[in-house]
Amino acid sequence: MSRSTMLSRDDCVNPNPDNTLTDRLNTALNSSGPGYVLSLCPNTEYIILAPIHFAFPGQEMSTLGYPTGEARAVLTVQGPVRNGTGHTTAVDGTCANCDGVRLRNIQVNGTRKGASPTTGGANIEMGGSNANQLIEYVHSFDPRSWSCLHVAEGSLSCTNVTVQNNDIGPCGSDMSKQWADGISFSCRNGVVRNNLLNNPTDGGIVLFGSPGTLVENNTIWVENRTMLGGINMVDHEPFNGDYTGVIVRDNLIMGGFATNPPTTEDGYLGYNKYNVMIKIGIAIGPRTWFGDEFGANVSMSGTVENNELSGAFGYGIAISSARNFTIQKNFLTRNTAFIGSPGPKCNPKDTTPSPMPFLVDQSLVNGSSLQVDFQPVADGNALTCIIPPQSGDQWPYSNGTTTPPTGNSGQLPVGSRALLIVGVILGVLAAMGATWFVVKWRRRKGTRSPSSSHLK
Questions:
Q1: Residue 86 burial class via C-beta count within 10 angstroms: exposed 0-12, middle 13-18, buried 19 and up
Q2: Residue 421 has pLDDT above 90, yes or no
Q3: Closest CA relative to residue 257, chosen from 243, 232, 274
């Protein structure tokens, strides 16, 4: 079928007949040259049996009219899976000639549907040895494999990829080894901003080095699945732990909140019917995640500033095996609890620290500027081994908005975000048992600038 009979400039791809759809979409891209726009029809599902590959610079795949809600076309991953391998990727923009390709205003349904993970790529694979790509207003969810969206490094030459205004998740299961990332980013000089990440289970945003990358104004939260880490800066490969020029700022990370009506006089603590939390809000350094598996490897030279944490966590920000980091002006907003206890995956050789807002393994962090809130611990290894409480009134109430609205792309609306950061939050409560404590801090955004603690 020729392109002219399949698609006109003012039309969109007909999903029927579906038995030729995957081939027709790929033929449109690989036969049409640079700058071609592959338009999908609004309110339409496209059932694909193999990845759709960008083929030339400047190509775009998008929904006609650029809707941002449920009207976006849906690419549904439906190819075969056998013995744990098979079709996992809907869109692939990693070709050797894929500079400037754009994925915009579509949805990708990975259709894991509770199954075990399938070996393969992410729902969306972008980057590679390319520059200036754009992923925006995309809803990616339920990946069969390890991530909802992966931007790959190629031969370490990926650069200037922008990931913005997307709504990502849910991604994976919180059962052991069935997790999936929200955004997995491994590209120099990128931008990851204004994304909503709902219920990823491994890392919300995982930075694989990615020197020069800006991560800002993202909102990450859990509802019914525990997440291992909100934002992760723990991977040594492929950039040898180099986070030079990486700035993680102005992000909002929300752990679990109480789901029952208030039962105590102050209405502060309740139970969560899913027993969910975020184990580490922001994790820095390989040992926080992998323990001593990678020896003396470190994360180096990133900046983490002005990020907000709210809800239930094991640890707010944890740093170990790192040097030359700047971590300043990060704060707790609304009601926040630090809960959990060592689980069966904890190494008996490690002394797993009690949950706390800001943790530093002081003996393994050098040349870094840390806000004064950090508490030193003797052992910051493998902190994701903790498990959430299985019962009890240990989750904070949100005192208002618990989660941003779902179903729309873009940054959390100003009014909703303001509800989370405005208002007086009373004092600091003492520890309430060996496995958890609660914090209410009087902090308004921008009003407190902790003095620095320099680790040499």
A1: middle
A2: no
A3: 274
**Residue 401 corresponds to which amino acid?**
T
Instruction: Give tens-digit pLDDT for 262-317.
Output: 765 666 889 999 999 999 999 999 999 999 989 999 999 999 999 999 999 999 99
Which tokens sit at 194? 């204004």
In terms of Cβ atoms closer than 10 Å to its own Cβ (0-12, 13-18, 19+), residue 372 is exposed
Question: Which region holds residue 5: left if phi is over 0, alpha if psi is between -120 and 50, else beta?
Answer: alpha
8 Å CB contact between 260 and 209: no
In three-state secondary structure terms, 289 is: helix
Whole-angstrom Cα distance, residue 121 to residue 134?
Answer: 19
Strands 341-342, 386-387: pairing is antiparallel
Confidence at residue 334, expressed as pLDDT on a 0 to 100 scale: 80
Q: Does position 17 have pLDDT exceeding 60, yes or no?
A: yes
Mean pLDDT in residue range 117-134: 98
Q: Is 199:224 a contact under the CB 8 Å cutoff?
A: yes
Say how far apart CA 420 and CA 409 lie, in whole Å: 19
The domain spans of the chain are 1-164, 207-456
381-390 pLDDT per residue, tens: 999 999 999 9
User: What average pLDDT does this structure show over 350-369?
Assistant: 96
Burial class (CB in 10 A: 0-12, 13-18, 19+), 45: middle
Residue 15: CB partners within 8 Å, gap ≥ 6? 21, 41, 44, 45, 46, 47
111-135 in b/e form (b: 16+ CB < 10 A) is bbeeeebbebbbbbbbbbbbbebbb
CA distance 388 to 278: 9
| Among candidate residues 73, 66, 82, the one with its CA nearest the CA of residue 52 | 73
Look at the alpha carbons of 210, 212, 218, 221 in this order and tell me if their dihedral is positive or negative: positive
Count of residues making up the chain: 456
Residues 6+ apart with CB under 8 A from 86: 79, 80, 118, 120, 144
